[in-house]
Design goal:
Elements lengths: L1 H32 L5 H20 L2 H14 L14 H41 L1 E4 L4 E3 L8 H32 L3 H45 L5 H31 L13 H10 L3 E7 L7 H22 L3 E9 L2 E9 L12 H12 L3 E7 L2 E9 L4
Helix pairs in contact: 1-2, 1-3, 1-4, 1-5, 3-4, 4-5, 6-7, 6-9, 9-10
Length: 399
Amino acid sequence: MTYRRWAYLIVGGALSVPYLVFAVAAVTVVSSVLFESSTVGALVVGGAVTLVVVVATSFLPVVRVLEAVAVRELLGDPARGADGRVVGFRTRARHSLMFLLHVGCGAVLSMVSLAVPVGFGLAVIAMVTGQLVESDDATVDVPPGWESVWLPITFVIGFVVLLYLVWGVGGVLREVAKRLLGMSAAERIVELERQTERLSERTRLARELHDSVGHALSVVTVQAGAARRTLHSDPGFTEQALTAIEESARTALDDLDHVLGLLRDGDTTRAPQSGLDDLPVLVGAARLAGADVTAELHGAPADVPAVVSREVYRILQECLTNAVRHAGRVPVAMTVAIMAGGLRATVTNPLGAARVQRAGGGRGLRGMAERAELLGGTFCAGPVGVRWEVVVTVRWGSR
């Protein structure tokens, strides 16, 4: 982590070089034009001009993007979601301030990082020559030999101090980046809403796959076993079982193609989803699978909103799947009563061999409950005496 922070500061030092060159040029020009006899005035005015240039360039989109990338990659991603493509003056000002801190701290620590190893080399040479600095203006002499060993030791200690300084400054900049470049409360809400939408869509698609493909596989499993047992003794029944397998597999493939279309490009027209109008087909497929299903439909399915029709159909499909899977070849009674502004669907079957069924668990039951809840309806499933009963009630319109 220390080395990543050091690299971040070195990058800041590299970015500061053009500004330092500009500052030297600005101070020179100001000194020669306005403050020929005042060095301090030239430094103040030249420094102010340089600061204005730094601030102006920090608002450039490319600079914001580069700074956001540097923070993400070199400071351990403290500003998740900050990519530099921002709107609003306050957000741009926060990015600008982060850039100024980066360049300023980077310039200072980069110079120190260069000075420490150079000073260590000069100190080692001074132990041999007895001269630490030699120039036309001044010469610094030191005792040669081991008497000057404290000089390189001092620079070694300075290097250790530099490491801690880099770690500390990098840590401070990391925390500052969290506050300046991190997502605001409004941005976090938007991101959470997007995540919620994605999770809801994934959950819905998972329910679709579970209900349609799970139903088909249950039918295929039952019919394949029956066909294997009657292959030689009852060819007619075997043909009927294979027909049920074919129809179930074709329906599952259509549903799978529909879901994959949604995942791929959001195309919802690839395969229209089934609704209450398709109940006769669903019941017929269940009968082909060997289930003894009696179905009663009271009212007009066309009066049911499309979303309610689709979701209730899936619930009824899952009920038939569970009956075939858990209870075996038992009679199943299905009743759908469509009333003004609502409907009530009931599915019952004997418990059969599965005397104990899960009243509170299983993906199928959870999926049916979730569908009913999304519609604002009620869902109840569990044993009633020696029968398993599922009741779904949904209302629409004025409530």
